Amino acid sequence: MNSESETKIRAIIVDDEPHARQGMERALSDFSDLVIVGICENGLQAVKVVNELQPDLIFLDIQMPKLDGFDVLELLGDQAPCVVFVTAYDEYAVQAFEANALDYLLKPLDPERLNKAMEKIRERIGSESSPQYTELLVGRERENELLQRILVRDGSDVHVLAVNSVCYIESADDYVAIHTEDATHIKLDRLGKLQDKLDPRQFCRIHRLCLLNINFLSRIETETKDSKIAILESGKELPISRSGYADLKKLL
After folding, report:
1. Among the CATH numbers 3.40.50.2300, 3.20.20.100, 3.30.70.100, 3.40.50.720, which is that of 9-137?
2. What is the pLDDT of residues 156-210, one digit of tens each?
3. How is 140-151 classified by DSSP, letter by letter?
4. Three-state secondary structure of 174-209
5. Does domain 146-251 have CATH number 2.40.50.1020?
6. Most exposed residue of 49, 84, 109, 122, measured as fewest CB within 10 angstroms of its CB?
7. Pair 196, 139: CB distance under 8 Å
8. Burial of 1: CB neighbours in 10 Å, binned 0-12, 13-18, 19+
């Protein structure tokens, strides 16, 4: 694969530290069958660059502000290319391989270890198989933690929504509509799956198709004998099912 006539592996580097980016670029320059097509300073840039350039490979830092490496993979989903995590912390190793990462490298980079990683990369990219990140999602590797933010991809843009800013969430088949006071965001996710990641003391399933943040609830009104409505502080009205009302009463 060292022949100039052969197709090169197209890779991007993602790291928030300038020296780490430079060091990785220097280390990878020794491999004639690999070309760096993009260098990103953060996860937001990484998502955009992957969408635009569609590289074969990402050398991805894990600990970064706003979006970490696992957040990047969640947002890319099945569009994620092969991934090699590069980090200064070894405690993420198991988590990385659960995310189907091709390899996991520790900083500072060891040349022999990098050579072994490149062998894996050549084998994977040269084969018919492709990485499967579709089921990764942040909730799996952090299954014991409640979400503090929700990531929403809108084309090449990424929205990071604080959970406390979410008024309510509605189900729409395989999608959810996440409503804040200022906007509505559409995310590919199931309502029940998202509910499992949110604080049950804050979010209540008031209806089969609706999850309410009780901090935005103003009052409950009775429409008919068996029909009740949640009135939000914004004035928005949401129907409450019988079972939803029972759950809401327990929470309040």
Report:
1. 3.40.50.2300
2. 678 889 999 999 999 988 899 999 999 999 998 999 999 999 999 999 999 999 9
3. HHTTTS--SEEE
4. CEEEEEECCCEEEEECCHHHHHCCCCCCCEEEEECC
5. yes
6. 122
7. yes
8. middle
